[in-house]
Design brief:
By secondary structure, the protein is an alpha+beta fold. The protein is 27% helix and 28% strand.
Length: 86
C-alpha cells in the first residue's frame, strides 16, 4: 500500500533526511521517499498505518507535521515560528 502525505516544517536537506529516517523507523514501513520542493512523502507500507503513528515519529525528529494528501489541499514549505532543524 502506497500513500502520499504532505509534510510541514521542512526547509532544508537535513530536514528531508530527518523526516525520512523517522518514517523508516515506523514498524510496517517498506520504503519512503521525501521531497523538499513539494514538501511531501511517498510511503509504502505492509498495511494501513494511521497518520497519528507517523506524527508521533516525526514529533521525535523535530517540528514536522504530516497530513494525508487528500486532507491538505495547499502545500506549505515551512511551519511558522518553529524554525529549521539545523
Amino acid at each position: 500500500m502506497t500513500k502520499k502525505y504532505f509534510i510541514d516544517g521542512m526547509s532544508c536537506g537535513s530536514c528531508v533526511a530527518q523526516v525520512k529516517a523517522a518514517v523508516l523507523k515506523v514498524e510496517g514501513v517498506e520504503s519512503a521517499e521525501v521531497q523538499l520542493q513539494f514538501p511531501q512523502a511517498t510511503i509504502a507500507t505492509e498495511s494501513d498505518i494511521p497518520t497519528s503513528i507517523f506524527q508521533s515519529a516525526l514529533n521525535k525528529a523535530g517540528h514536522y507535521e504530516i497530513h494525508e494528501r487528500e486532507n491538505k489541499p495547499q502545500l506549505e514549505t515551512k511551519k511558522t515560528g518553529s524554525g529549521c532543524c539545523c
